[in-house]
Amino acid sequence: MDETLKASPPLIEAADVIAGEKSSHLSAGIVFLVWLVPVFSTILFGGVDTITWVMISVFWLAIILLWLGETWKGNGLLINPSSLQLPILGLLLIGLIQLMPLSGGDSGTLGAAASRSLTMDAYATRFFLIHLAVYSVFFAACLTFVNTEARLKKTSVLIIVFGAAMAFFGIMQRLANPDGIYGLRGTPQAVPFGPFVNQHHFASFMVMTSGLALALLFNKRSGRNTKVLLAAAVVIMGIAIVFTSSRGGVLAFISVLAFVTMLNFFSGRWSDEKSLKESGNEPQPKIVLVAAAGSLVLVILGSVLLLGGNESLFRGIGVTQIQDGVSNGRAHFWSIALKIFLEHPILGAGLEAFGVAFTKHDTWNGLFRVEQAHNEYLQTLADAGIAGFVCVFAFVYLLFKKGLRTIASARGFRRDAAIGALAGCFGILIHSFFDFPLRTPSNAFFFLMLCAIATVPVQSAHSGHSRRRHRSTAP
């Protein structure tokens, strides 16, 4: 558990101002905004439009103001200083360095500072840094204020219910085959699904939300009615993933299913089997876990065939392949990403500057403007060099280190939520080898929310009554 120090202004440990003490209205308002931002951005086309970011920026400012109000009211800054935030701050620092006029250029021309900067696309890098700033505040708010078991449960339920609702809407929209998203917005250069402009990124959204549903489905504590609802949610999400025809999405979903199954299967060192036996419940038989996982796959595949998704299924499992489309040139994009990295090995060509750097090495006819490498890790090397890749590696390492530690020490719902959230993160990280799902803002928001659920120290209501607000003074 991360420790918090009281400096000037004093810092208050987030896990201490929780159950057993009535939370403030300001704190509740911040939690509501933390829920609203990912939901709002998902409904509005995944948050890819500028006008959507204007509204997100308003919510971001509201979070900051409420947080300052909470600080003033509580006579201290409530914060969770998780080390997971450091890699994000590291990327921010790299972007700021890339914008500095450190390279050669003509100082007498208009916009010389931008031309002499390290990044090859100063505008894109600035905009990416704005995104990172919003993400960093959002993530800090998740870590700090989703700090009770009640808030953790509500957040998890929100993710599952909203994910299932979006899956159902996406399936209905695909079957109805309208002219555009919501029947209003056309996407002539992309294949949409649900509210997303990119069907592959919708598949990643389903992968993340399915992790929590699977983890809660596979535990012994959920009642029969709850299990039926969770199973229905998982099946709907799985059908939606297959209907997207995303091979990376299907692979990621299988990875999530395997991750949850394996953690439960080999849970002897983590599980609370002793407490289950003492309460009169037997731990989940391991053969049942494997059978349940296999049954879910069969039900999903059968449902897809029943709904007429044969083509989507065959392409999703790699039997057939669509020949046209920019996303099928991944080998070409990956080789160019490596060339860009070799030219700019330390700090890269600039955050989100891949589209400009790509043109120097592109041997295609230029019909498509390729802005992404379709591999998050290679693009990180191209955009931010070794320094940026170290930040990404550090984030993933800390995420799984803290997440597995939470699973090892937690019990009950807290443990199940950590397994599901970490599984969802694992799935989208797998998908990121073949696409760029985290470049869609709504996916990034949900990913950070899952990271918080997987790692944040949460105190239950039972222990909260016996624990007072704790402050310690920094030397």
**Elements, N to C (H/E):** EHHEHHHHHHHHHHHHHHHH
Beta-strand residue percentage = under 5%
* Shape annotation: globular
Q: How does the helix and strand content classify structurally?
A: mainly alpha
Distance between the termini: 20 Å
Question: If you compute it from the alpha carbons, what radius of gyration comes out, rounded to the nearest whole angstrom?
Answer: 23 Å
Average pLDDT, all residues: 82
Helix content: 55-70%
Strand order of the largest sheet: 1-2
Query: Low-confidence parts, pLDDT < 50 over ≥5 residues?
Result: 1-8, 17-22, 105-112, 268-272, 462-475
Keywords:
475 residues; mainly alpha; two-stranded parallel ribbon; 2 strands; disordered N terminus; disordered C terminus
Tell me the layout of helices and strands.
Layout: E1 11-13, H1 25-43, H2 50-74, E2 77-79, H3 85-99, H4 112-115, H5 122-145, H6 149-176, H7 199-217, H8 224-243, H9 247-265, H10 273-278, H11 286-306, H12 310-316, H13 330-343, H14 354-358, H15 376-409, H16 412-431, H17 441-455, H18 461-464
Parallel strand pairs: 1-2
